[in-house]
Amino acid sequence: MKEFDRFIDVMHKLRQECPWDKEQTLRSLRTYLIEEAYECLEAMNAAEQGDYTNLIEELGDLLLQIAFQSEILSENLKEPVIIKVISGITEKLVRRHPHVFAQAKADDSKAVLENWEELKKKEKGVSDQSLFAGFKATGPALQTALKIGQKSERVRFDWDDESEVWSQFQSELKELEAAETPENEEEELGDLLFCLAQWARHRKLDAEVALESANQKFLKRFRWMEEKAKEREQNFRELSREQKEDLWKEAKSALRR
Q1: CA–CA distance from 28 to each of 13, 64, 78, 79, 133 (Å)?
Q2: Which CATH number fits the domain that encloses residue 26?
Q3: 172-216 per-position pLDDT tens digit
Q4: Of the candidates 95, 118, 139, which is a domain's last residue?
Q5: Structural domain count of the chain
Q6: pTM: predicted TM-score of the whole model, two decimal places
Q7: 200 Cβ contact list (under 8 Å, min separation 6)
Q8: Is the pLDDT reported for residue 129 higher than 70?
Q9: pLDDT tens-digit profile of 81-91?
Q10: Do residues 212 and 139 touch, judged by C-beta distance below 8 A?
């Protein structure tokens, strides 16, 4: 595809001739990769409301990070790594979907996931029969909690429904309230958050996405409050708690519209 070839050529030229691009390393790009992933996530929220423009742009920014790191690896390995990246994921998809590309059967998405895990273990040569053999607790903690719950569900070590999880959540909340030391509070808070993540899973919600959306919503409202105070020639920092609460209510109403 000529568009993709041109994209890779541009990336190569930037790496050779742009002072900033030439300075970057795999370590320096870590922050940008995380930032772009979260910006893409925010754009996905807008896309669900019918606005796809930002998502298209953010997917491009995310693709840039993949191409950038591949270009750096190509310099180190003296071969075109982007080709390996693409062919590698293509072959993996074919191998792990034998119900599509071979004769295996999978009647539902649960069966697909179970087959995926088994094939993944075989490919990585994992002999340990533990459910979590090879499991990496990396990434955001809430997302990891979701993955742990999903794996446990596959061997039926799980609550039957969200009402049972909610009951457990209420129990964990009481234990947090009864905690007597900072160490106990931290432990019980972790249990509470883990339980809440599992409740979200049972409700088909993604706790990580929900928290990120809440973060962005707070930031938008807070910036609105600051701008409105500035328009009214008020010093936001010096406003009373009651005045800030009133501004917050205004921001909620305005941004909802």
Answers
A1: 19, 14, 21, 22, 31
A2: 1.10.287.1080
A3: 999 999 999 999 999 999 999 999 999 999 999 988 888 888 888
A4: 95
A5: 2
A6: 0.61
A7: 146, 206, 207, 210
A8: no
A9: 999 999 999 99
A10: no
